[in-house]
Protein 1
Amino acid sequence: MFSERLRQLMDLLEASGSETAGYAGFDRTNISRFLSGARVPKQDGAASEKLVHALYMIALKKNRLDALSAALDLPENTGKEEALRKLQLYLFEDQNETPERQAPGTAGIPEQSFGRKLDAVMNLLELTNARLSRLLYTDSSLISRYRSGARTPRQDSHSSARLCAVLWDQTVRMNRTEELARILSVPEDELSGSVFSQWLFARDESSSSQSQTAENLLEVLDRYEDFLLPVPEISFDTEHQGGTYCGYSGLREAVLRFLSLAYRRKAPQLLLYSDQDMEWMTGDPVFLRNWGILMNAAVHNGTGITIIHNIDRSLAEMNAAITGWLPLYMSGMVESFYCTSERNPRFSHTLFVMPGVAAIQAFHVPGTEAEGSYAWIDDPEELTRCEKTFRMLKKQTKPLISVSRSFRAEEITGHTWIRSALPVSSMPQDLADELGAQISAFRKITAPLLEKQLESGPYMEFIPAGSRDMTMHTENMPGCAAVSYTQEQYERYVRHIEELMDTRPDSRFVFLPRPLFANVTAAINETNVQIIYTGARPALFTVSHPLMIRAFENYAAQLFLRFSSGR
């Protein structure tokens, strides 16, 4: 079967799981799931294409193409494309057979569909259709239709809630949370019943759509311009004490009053949390523009903002939230967090606090917010309680995004880099000396960092290539001025890269025909994505949510498939 053949090939190539994942651009847990049989990629899917290409590249780098050819019974002088085709056929030779633990009828349904996910969890928990139906007090034929993809329950139904609760309870009772976390590709300490439910019913977001999300974020950052719009004239009854605002229109009025007050008073801090539907904000373009202007004016005025995001949404929605807040994040005045605790399904909560001045607070049954009541609070004792509530919420969060205007090269690490210019770290020392004292000094700082990253495991770097008609520059990083190369200097640089690849079998330096972005460089590692903005006011933009990390890993994998020349 697929898992056994993959293990045989990896043993033949002396390839570890992390090494294979690095070449494929996968999260390491993907290889573990392939080897365990918990996941089998589609033969004609992007995941299988990346895996096959990774195995071929490992064989090439380790000089084991002859051994691979013998295992696949390939004729002498077989070309790369034919070898890749035979390798794929070998891995998936028995894919049309029903896997031992796969429910009948699941082979034809999408890999990330509800049915496939349910099947994987039931296999993990060793649950048959009959056993699960007894736990749910339902008919086993219904479970069979769920697993086959013939039916998908509504996420907000009672039966769906009961299904998730039973599966989660079984997972905890059988001590299978670690294995379930691997299936979901999330850290075990972030796994909860709520996270499991969101994953089980989540829409399929393919690797290509994830890749597009990462590319879009880089494009938005690349075009970012730092400017301040004029603050609108918004007048309010400043003598109004307390009170209630009704419906979305009332909430918008309260929020504009809240932000205008923060701007006029130069409030030191705003504390923001809301898990209700965002229609109140996005449904009125005029309000949204005024909200953005007032928020931007407040941070430029010295107001720090601490915001807790709820990211139990799709990757596209998360990306929209990040890009929408970008001007605020780039100010360096925003602390951003995301909730790790389970969201209360019965009530939504909105809490905006300006410590010592005012707060807006509301609780609603989901679906009633548009006609609900929102309390304006300025009583000192009530404000103290609101602030304590926010602080308790913050204890159940992890950092989402941080932006630093002051950073050093030593703070940036990654097993995969997407460069906007030639990096100094991978040039020979004599070339750095030749280009000037500042470049030489920067190389002495960054070269040991590169060496450390090369030693730690699989490493990949995408570098803009030069041509005889193109003037190349070194990266424009703090402590490193951009300088031009001659053609001869560029060719020396390339030779040095080739030497690095020859001595480091698990390193890949991929030359791009042109820079993908003018003002951003991205470094991807297991815990975050660091994006260096090198525009007029350089900044280090760090995203730490697992979904975004996976999106960037998929983007890098697609770049590798597109631009790798086989070296």
Protein 2
Amino acid sequence: MRRWVQLPLLLLLLGVALEPARAATSRTFPETNQTVSARMLEFWDQNGGLPVFGLPISDQRSEQTNAGRFTLQHFERERLELHPQNTAPYDVLLGRLGDELLRRQGRDWRDEPNQGNPLGGPCQRFDDTGREVCGPFLAYWQGHGLRDPRLNPYQRSLALFGFPLTGVKVERNSSGHEVLTQWFERARFEYHPNNPAAYRVLLGRLGAEAYDPQSPNREPTRYKNVTLPELGRSLTIPVGFEIQLIADQLSRPRFMAQSADGTLYVAEQGSGEVSRWRDTDADGTLERQQRFAADLPIVSSLAFVPQGLVAATETQLVLLRGGPDGAATKQVLTELPSGSRDLYGHRTRTVVYGPDNKLYVSIGSSCDLCEETDSLRATVTRYNLDGTQPEVFAGGLRNSVGIAFRPGTTELWGVDNGRNGLGDELPPEELNHLVAGGDYGWPYCHGDRVASPEYNNPARCNGTRGPDWTFQAHTAPLGLTFYDGMQFPPSFQGDAFVARHGAAASEVSRLSGYDVVRVRFKDGRPVAEETLVEGWLADNTWWGRPVGLLVDRDGSLIISDDGAGRLYRLRYVGQ
């Protein structure tokens, strides 16, 4: 039965250019505030426009799919992908959303029963899937197709909709209507008998349902409270998700890394160890394995590189390689600045592996507010993989604990913790796009280039970079990751998750933070913030402090809690 899967793809890959390319244009749709441009817009216009594809519901962006990473855009009824290696018109391909959504619902089309011919009229049988398309559905299928004069009408329709996967039966759509429905590889046909004749067959909103199944009609995110039976505590998460305690009794777990075989490595700051965790009995929780490395004071973060696992302690970058007995051998790559001038001197170090084959290390300030004498303090510094040639990449960063590269780009982003001493509401915490040579203002400025009263130098602040997004003051954003998995709905792809460790009780009259937030991105920029997980703070008392975030190989999100020594997993389970 593999032939039916491959035939549409083969048709799409055989194309040649049919007409000269048009000048790049763009169109913004006020209904969704999304813009379609250049080749996407040309394809949309040429092959049916609004009735076939619907409105755009996402920006054009780089996204990971089952078939690889592509630049794509989501529409109400389809997903369009750019494949520049193909010649036009097949440099734009359509997602197989019908097949994808059936599988997401746990429905195998092969097991779906045929329902006779409730629509009446003539039928056409498709031997590749053993299904018939009849009456008004057949007329619609035959009357629409990709615009390609080299293909016959059958091939054009096949390229647009694909083969039928199910029979016809009554189903409820995302608008709440119960209608006669038939699924195809790339579409869902719905029969609305009370509509005018020309609109009785409509295409289901597969694109919207696949992109954001919890809010296909752009409703606000809905939440639910989930009680963790092991703890007798509740957390609040979006509807459609579940959260589970997967490990307990860790010693201040901070940041994590995952090997190719799925083993989770955790920097346990309290014990100065790197531990290993696996689900060895397939019960959904993780079991501690043999200790990987010890005697790593204030170990805070880990990053896999081709040579092994790099651990960042307060004073060193250390390369760890697994030995024959399972324990790691250590090689010090470089010494890092250390020491503290006051209570707020920062001792954690964050290391990430960059797309340029370099190590990027966040080194916090030695104080709450001071002029540093060590040029590597309050920076993100770039090193060779062997720890040589330190180069300040970005400065003026009081404590940019969480740093991460945005998927599909070479952009480095970081969250920065603001200073103290300006009251409960100032300064805001920051999310910054970190650029080479960028100065982000500390200690002379805070927030959006506001001069610190202790230095009062507005002119200097004017030459610094302001934040790309701000969070409530004193919430201590620490963990940062971008979602690049496929377990969550596609609407999460490319968005940032930030773990907010929570305010210091000595600095505010009321605690805040102690949560994980989602920062939505559009056109490569942050545009909105919403809660992803909260509940670790109750009645102005915290019982957990989220800090590290890791997108598991299966696409779920692992959250570390260094306040209670726990790991959690957030997973999408659907309606």
Protein 3
Amino acid sequence: MTDPLLSLVSVGLLSIFCQFLAYKIRLPAILPLLITGIIVGPVFGMLDADALFGDLLFPIVSLSVAIILFEGSLTLKFSDIAGHGNMVRNLCSIGVLVTWVVAAVAAHYSLALSWQLSALFGALVTVTGPTVIVPMIRTVRPKTNIANILRWEGIVIDPIGALLAVLVYEYIVASQDTALLHTLIAFGKTVGIGTVLGVGSGYLLGLALRKKLIPHYLQNTAVLTLILGVFAISNHVAHESGLLAVTITGMVLANMKDVDVEDILEFKETLSVLLISGLFIILASRLNLNSVFDVGAGVMIVLAAIMFIARPLSVLASSIGTGLNWRELALISWIAPRGIVAAAVSALFSLKLEQIGYEGAGAVVPIVFIVIIATVVIQSLSAKYVAQFLGVRSPPPNGFLIFGGSKFSRLLASELVQHDIPVCIADTNWDAVKASRMMEIPSYFGNPISDHAARTLDMGTFGTVLVMSPYKQLNPMIAYHFEYTVGKDRVWGLTNNEQTARPSHQVGTQYAKTLTLFDEGVTYGYLASAVSHGAKVKTTGLSDEFTFEDYVKTYKDRAIPLIALDNNNRTHAFLNGRELSPKSGWKVIGLVIPDSEAV
């Protein structure tokens, strides 16, 4: 494409298409993004990133990686590491070192890379990342403890692995000078300036946010601008210390008391998705297929060393004292696809090393991309069967994610908890969430379709989503999102009785099909009124002597069946228009209205 405007728009359209495709097929987005970049770049020559951006390519990649690393470091809370056990902490420390050493040694002897470039390659492939781990966990459905370990490893290891790569790169650049003392001074200056500026800017920015010195509507824009300023100033003072500075800034902000970074994090996540999508197509389009083929068969040895030596050794070394059995460790060892940070940082450092004329620097990117594609493809396609073979795959999800924390929702959730049914109430209203937590009901404060929810909610345990909130504008969005996440037949909402109202109040046909929860006429207002008049959520056991027909006759119009539990404790929601006939031995959870009350 010769028209720059058309090229830029095409990159944006292709990136959105790739994200949507990954969402539909439930694979990490990095895979279609990389393949698309290769197709439009070296295969058909439709996109020439160097001609399109010219001298701006390097600054654009640098700033994009800085934002991605800052966003990743904002999730690095030390309390989260401790809260998920020694295994996560060990994987992100001991495990990183083991992977680094094994990958570096394999690259040096199998691909004849210098020790410096081998060390850089080893640091780059230590990271996994939530963007590749989370879709895989949803498909594999490992046991909860395994899912938590893998999810939090992906979150925590991104900035740590990137930080290690930054330090290795700084050492390589500093060692260009033959004087050892000068090398150590330059390296120390880079690390020192990056650390001091990172800690200082993070603390000052945290104070500004805590004291609300920045208006709320300017917070996201101000933080983004200031972070880019820290990156540029740090690089100006000490060569290439900016990535270290922004990573530490994010870590400081994430761990400061009384500093709310959720809004900033959500904004940065949205921006990161945009940057990552476009960046990957652009970077992949710069790949030289000849250089990929020139890598040789040695890359297969490196790949095998990473997958079958480095990962199992790092998991084994990290598992000491954790109490995990060999089956759980085996699955953790198998699931470690490399992600977006590895590709972005490798491309950035390769560009920088090529600019200073470092010999062999161009070989790093194709090797990293081969590792990324191979691990994503192999592990995405096989992990489900490996988990099933090892016997560590969770059964089909049986729990409920309830959107809407009304009193009725809390009563229903509390009853489900009594029967050991996984449940979580999500609401954007703090009072509703606080009331749920006071009843010891698992809850999520915020929008359940946000990126933050995707990282923290364990959707592997929730097979059904019940939309029972009064938020008419948000309810359809929740329903549409989870129809693709858990399935169309697993998302149900309360009717709003507006399909027969005037046309301006009617909802979409597809969304209307989900509004069949419980029974005809059971709206949010009806349930709220019933509960306010003393209605209770009650469980009734069925038997040969007391059948479901007897249940209906006994309560007549005073009971609304809600959920049925079969003999295996599997859940079945009552839906308007769908017949459900509970059998002997089943339990029926219903809303029972007192005799003397009328709603």
Protein 4
Amino acid sequence: MNKFQRGLNYRNKIVVVFSLFIALVMLMVSIYSYKRESVSIIVTSKQSAQINVEQIGQKLDMQMMLLNRISFSLAVNKTIASNMEKLIEDENKKQEVENILTSLLISWKQISAITVFPLNGGTLFRSRTATYSNIQDIQKEEWYSQLSSSSENFIILPVYDKDETIFGAKPSLSIIRKIVNPESFVLEGYLKVDFPLTYITHNVLESSIIGDGVYKLQDQLEQTIISNVKDKEELPLFFSKSVEPSSGAYLQNVNGNTYIVSYAKLDQYPWSLVYYSSFKKTQNKIQRAYVIQIAIFSLCLLLSIIVSYFIARRLSLQIYDLKKGMLKAEEGNLNVKVKIRSRDEIGVLIHSFNRMVVGIKDLYEKLYVAELGEKNAQLQALQAQINPHFLFNTLEAIDALALSKESEVISELILKMSNCFRYALNSQSNCTLKEELEHCNDYVDIFRIKYPDKIELRVDVTEELKHIPVPRLIIQPIVENAIHHGILKSGKSGRITINVRKVGIEELLIEIKDTGIGMDPVKRKQLEERLRTGGLPETDRHIGLMNVNSRLKHRYDTNYGISIDSAENGGTKISLYMRIS
């Protein structure tokens, strides 16, 4: 993570931080909004289902009130109530009552059958439209004892399959009323009116149920009166939970499917309507809300990235200008000047940078003149000293040869020595690569005279490179180190290889490799550090190497100079990098 942060620039960091902040805020808002909207959708769906079942309950109440009024109108009919005691003996009264009941059956389509129970008993009588039963036949019924001992004038019986009605064998709902003489207010009998349940289900429930909803009309004992569940064994799966309040709604899972359960108690009768509606529509609404929240979140995130990019671009524009100026100054262009676009902290920093570049330029010009004079003095001093060890060794060789009177060898040695002195003391700072290599060859020949078959020199360079101008005395000091500190200390014969080649278009690489004793790793690292920082050598041993490195860096660039590749007892390779000019 830290590596990733370090790899981002200032502008991208602002974009990432701002976008992450907006994304985090929007994510929290989206989650909160989604949860709140989901809860709101569920609550709204529950309320809607509850209102719907309450409206159905009101319709049922109205329908039951209508059926009750129908039964009441029959119970208070004067002709029926006044002739109840004469129905058994008087056939005319029977016919008169039968005509009234038949006309009522024709007028009121809601009635499926009417039964009259006179208290004076008599023979059971049946007709196509109405039934007269003996009172002894119904005294064993549960409803009889309940109604006769109650102060109420009517009772509603639950659903049962009537044996014979004008509609055939169909489930019916019965209302039983007391028949009271309107003059004497004496109980004369009972009136039982049957209503087909299809009337209730078709006109109220079936027309109000949506989709694959499941409903149940139950009494105060939670016994089923009406339900659209075809298989009675499935009733407990749905209607297993008691409903206590007058109305309400909750969620319930049935066989892996979620339903909204809404219920309401009727106002006029001790019945409750329980309705199961599918939760799929509500789930679809929640899913749409989820998709909408995702879309809003994505859009806001995209807008935040775009806005943060432009804000970061505006804020980082001056920083980019400062960065470009610093890169140009690093490349050596001290004439650079960054434009100041504001007076804030970044503007003050740019102003300080411009002043610093001007100061560095002035200081560099002063130091350059001083250092140039110093380098020239060092070069002249180097050219003047020509390593006393070399001079002493050469004189010893001349002395030894003189004793043996080998005059031709002495002449050659003196000639090469003269060429070396003449080349080293030349006041010109530049020469061709060919001249530098010839000087190195003369220098090695002198040692070969003193140490026959001890030193071998190989030079690999193309003709086109021999005419390239190079600084004077940049190869010979390296060769000298290779002989004294590499080959001679090994006590064995050795070889020095000089390989010159072009690198790219404008760079030249000169590699001087020997087969000497190499360098200790610790001392090699110390020497590399001094070459990198331009420090002074600890002894005169590396003064030539340090001088060459300093001259190359000063003349070309700090990217050029000397690199070392050496291993203990594995020889040393010195590489000189310079620009072709």
